[in-house]
Amino acid sequence: MILIANLACQLNLGGPEPPGDPIPTQENAAFNLTEMWQSALQDAVESGQVIVILNEIQLTSLLGQRMAQKENPLLLEPQVFLRDKMIQIYGTTKNGPFTANVLIGITPVINADGELSFDLTRAEFGPIPAPSALKETVSAILTEAFTGTIGSLATGIRISSIAISDGEMGIVGEIR
Questions:
Q1: Which range, 6-15, 20-29, 135-144, is most confident?
Q2: Residue 36, SS3 per DSSP
């Protein structure tokens, strides 16, 4: 009886479908990304060029870890899909008795100075547009991943190109 009453109090608003199959996670994703940047920088000492290839598992793991650190995360069970030249973030969000699917599409942009930023190109939150707090949180996590704790290792790098396809994102840059 209590279970039925509890289920009646939960309302799933639906929303967008994930753009692919669920992505597994890795426990040590942030550590792996840090090592990857360090290795790319060491290789760049000789060649002058930095090449980093990230995958969906690494980014999904990192985003999941960051969301899990929050007391009331805005996005539950996040998944990062690298498809169609964009970063697509899928998950669910919960507010009181309401649950909704969320899909955010972000296109990486390189400015004239070789700095990476993100252009939010799609945001679906159940049947309504995603709230700005969710957009800001996801953007902040992505920005931090590339310019904060992990990306700070890449200070002095001018990004020349970025490509997203088939579950991977390749970043090419050069030492300034």
A1: 20-29
A2: helix
Extended strands (E) in the chain: 11-12, 49-55, 76-83, 86-95, 98-110, 116-125, 128-129, 157-165, 168-175
Query: Is 62 in a helix, a strand, or coil?
Result: helix
Q: Pull the structure tokens for residue 100.
A: 């909704």
Q: Which stretch of 41-50, 89-98, 126-135 has the lowest confidence by average pLDDT?
A: 126-135
Q: Domain ranges in the chain?
A: 10-175
The answer to whether the pTM exceeds 0.85 is no
End-to-end CA distance of the chain: 66
Residue 174 CA to residue 44 CA, distance in Å, equals 8
Helix 56-68 and helix 132-147: axis angle, to 10°? 120
